[in-house]
Design brief:
Blueprint: E1 7-10, H1 15-25, E2 31-33, H2 51-66, E3 70-79, H3 100-110, E4 120-130, E5 136-148, E6 164-166, E7 171-172, H4 178-184, H5 186-204
Length: 205
Amino acid sequence: MTHLTRRLLVASHNKGKVREYAEILGDMGIDWLTLDEAGVAEDVAETEDTFRGNAVMKATAYARQTGLLTLADDSGLAVDALGGRPGVLSARYGGPGTTAVDRYQLLLAELRDVPAERRTARFHCVTALAAPNGELIGTADGVCEGVIALEPSGVGGFGYDPVFFLPPYGLTMAQLDAAEKNRISHRGRAAAAIAPLLRRALAGS
């Protein structure tokens, strides 16, 4: 197998996300490519109302566009006291122009009067793998349970990590070291679940 056949497009511009995947699955000798590195200029709109729908749409569309084996995900935070919000809108919560800090501050403001026992939440991630011709190979899920903290803590991770508290650890996701986060996070679990499909796809390419 040549080096070229082990190229994998991760359907994201987010270097933090690609780095996490490389750390979790790096033992496969993959040549990781972001959308920018693959020359993708136009993003696929996330118009589905489920994590799986968006992940599948991105994986298959970008694979067809680039002719590369493509791994995509959609993930987000579901807060029970908010009826599952922000959900699939997690990355766009609060509207255009909001930063990650804006989004989790908005979340904290919405939960200001919600007691600790009702602040349960979970991160959910669905990964989708598509063949270079755009055919869906399969999907996998990962979930990480926690609660929304009263205030942000920690400087690691990204997104809502500073306000996602993990009771078994007594820490937020942003306070975990990278190796432990990759082991227990929703993305880490989804990546581990999709790994057998990815190995088979790489072996057959």
